[in-house]
Amino acid sequence: MPVTVTAQYEIPDAELRWRFSRSSGPGGQGVNTTDSRVELVFDLAATKVFPESLHERALARLESRLVEGAVVIAASEFRSQLRNREAAAERLGDLLRRAIAAPPPARRATKPSKGQQRRRLEDKRRRGQTKRLRRDTGD
Predict the structure, then answer these.
(1) Contact partners, residue 10, CB within 8 Å, separation at least 6
(2) How many CA atoms lie within 13 A of 6 on its CB side?
(3) Which NCBIfam families match (predicted)?
(4) CA distances from 126 to 42, 130, 131 (A)
(5) Distance from CA of residue 69 to its chain's centroid?
(6) Taking the domains of the chain in order of start, what are their residue ranges?
(7) Contact 66/99 with Cβ under 8 angstroms?
(8) For residues 93 and 78, what is the distance between their CA atoms, to the nearest angstrom?
(9) CA dist., res. 119 & res. 28, Å (int)
(10) CATH says 3-100 is which class?
(11) Over the range 98-124, which residues count as b (16 or more CB within 10 Å of their CB) and which as e?
(12) Half-sphere CA count of 34, side-chain side, radius 13 A
């Protein structure tokens, strides 16, 4: 099953590697016999799914998560291998969607208004007065 990143971009099955192993956690006696843990490996460095600009953005943003240029997603929260496969594919799609997203617009610095400055100073004065009244007078 191909992994959908956005409506435009989809990762074909040929670029995904799946590994299965025994999972810890829920499963009862079956946990020792079924390979329900899933690892999904996607070689981000070698893919041609994204245009060059998005590819570079994704590589830069996911740099700390890459293992030799590949993204590895592990899923073992479900008892069923199929559900874990779906969870891993969904997580990979979300991760890549966030990695290729356009950066947010730059924040325009603004000054606090006169009213905000006045209220802040009044609050500071009031707080200082409260602390002064709590002091030990030495009587």
Answers:
(1) 2, 3, 4, 49
(2) 11
(3) PRK09256.1
(4) 58, 6, 9
(5) 18
(6) 3-100
(7) no
(8) 19
(9) 61
(10) alpha beta
(11) ebbeeeeeeeeeeeeeeeeeeeeeeee
(12) 17
The 10 Å CB-count burial string (b at 16+, else e) for 75-93 is: bbebbebeebbebbbebbb
Other beta carbons less than 10 A from residue 11's beta carbon: 20
Q: Which two tokens stand for residue 9?
A: 């971009």
Place of tokens 């966030």: 98
Chain-centroid distance of CA 106 in Å reads 21
pLDDT in tens, the chain (139 residues): 788 888 888 888 888 999 988 876 665 666 566 778 899 999 988 888 889 999 999 999 999 988 998 999 999 888 888 999 999 999 999 999 999 999 999 999 999 999 999 999 999 999 999 999 999 887 7
DSSP string, 57-80: HHHHHTGGG-BTTEEEEEE-SSSS
